[in-house]
Amino acid sequence: MSLQAPVTVLQHPVVARDLTILRDRETGISQFRAAMHRISTILAYTALMDLPLRSRPIETPVRETEGFDINTEIIVVPILRAGLSLVDAILNFVPEAKVGHLGMYRDEKTHQPVDYYSKLPSEIQDGLVLLVDPMLATGGSADDAITFLKEKGAHQIRFISLISAPEGLERIRKHHPEVSLITASIDEKLNDNAFIVPGLGDAGDRYFGTL
Fold first, then answer.
1. Amino acid 211: pLDDT
2. What is the span of the domain harbouring residue 46?
């Protein structure tokens, strides 16, 4: 039986400030995007802290010394479309990372995820997969996506979210206990429409301006 991987919740004053900006219904699209980028950078930094390294000799202008390269493939997989808002921050740290895509939407009546598109790089079987989606609500989309990635051969998966509901965390911990979770906030609960409370509304609509 797998030991449960950790849930990491960001503790940072910039995150607290930017979450307030994101939650405020009066925040405009440019301010929303800027705050999202700042928090996603801290999320990416946290998710990449323990990457394996391999050493190699290099020549500085002064003498030879030891340098390092990242010793694993990094594959970023956003759950479309809101997950795209978190991708650039990871690529800023690891420009050589591969990017796959998983298309899912939530059925408005059943609140269950529906798959409609997938495109993944071949390195998914050997690399570290960072699955990203701003909102972990019921956990249905994340659960479905993680199962799909495992079926495609992924062995190392980390899930990165901006805001998580306890119900979604519980579902992922139950079905995929080996998957590490990194989030900026664990909110109170889900409401009757399966939206996170207090949340920030629909992250994709607010980020892309499709309200």
1. 77
2. 7-208
Before 13, cis peptide (omega within 30)? no
Query: In the annotation, is 46 catalytic?
Result: no
> Which of the following is catalytic: 110, 115, 126, 147?
110
Specify whether 106 is catalytic: yes
Nearest to 199 by CA among 144, 146, 161: 161
Is 46 among the domain residues? Answer: yes
- Active-site option among 27, 33, 41, 202: 202
Q: Crossing angle, helix 13-23 and helix 29-47, to 10 degrees? A: 140
The average pLDDT across 56-69 equals 97
Is 69 designated active site?
Answer: no
CB 121 within 8 A of CB 96: no
Q: The CATH number of the domain where 175 resides is what? A: 3.40.50.2020
In a domain, 1, yes or no: no
Contact (Cβ atoms closer than 8 angstroms) between residue 151 and residue 121: no
Number of domains into which the chain is organized: 1
pLDDT, tens digit, 9 for 90 and up, residues 104-140: 766 667 766 677 788 999 889 989 999 999 999 999 9
pLDDT greater than 50 at residue 100: yes
181-211: pLDDT as tens digits: 999 999 999 999 889 999 999 998 999 999 7
Active site residue 202: yes
Reduced to 3 states, what is the DSSP secondary structure of residue 59? strand
